[in-house]
Amino acid sequence: PPWPNVHACGTLRQAADVVGDWMKERRKRLDRAKRVRPEIRMAIEYIRDHLQDELTLETIADHIQLSPSYMGHLFKKEIGKSVMDYILEQRIERAKSYLLSGRYRNYELAEKSGFRNYSHFCTMFKKYAGMTPNEFKNKHKSLVTP
Fold it and tell me: Is the pTM of this model over 0.70?
């Protein structure tokens, strides 16, 4: 999971184990990311830098100077998911960090995360996070900075 759930731990040792496991998984993901082709790494950087923008396979492929179909094929092969699924996951992760920051209203953070429609944002957030944005915020209330 993207966020370690230390609240369910009974002891400090259990919480440390949960965080340790989370960090190991994070390191594995970073190691996998280092092994991707330079073109795909460029695509990922472009996506992260432009999450709030309208992103299409064509605009990303144009940026890295590959055909959309070839880039889509390479991306799926290297990352294990489609470009659009990756973009959605990244947008949800950004929305989670905005929710935890407590600086934006939900409709504002939805737009800052790249969603043009608040209803679509809520639907996708629930699909990927397993809960609504408000449920996420309430569950992690102790982490939310006022």
Answer: yes
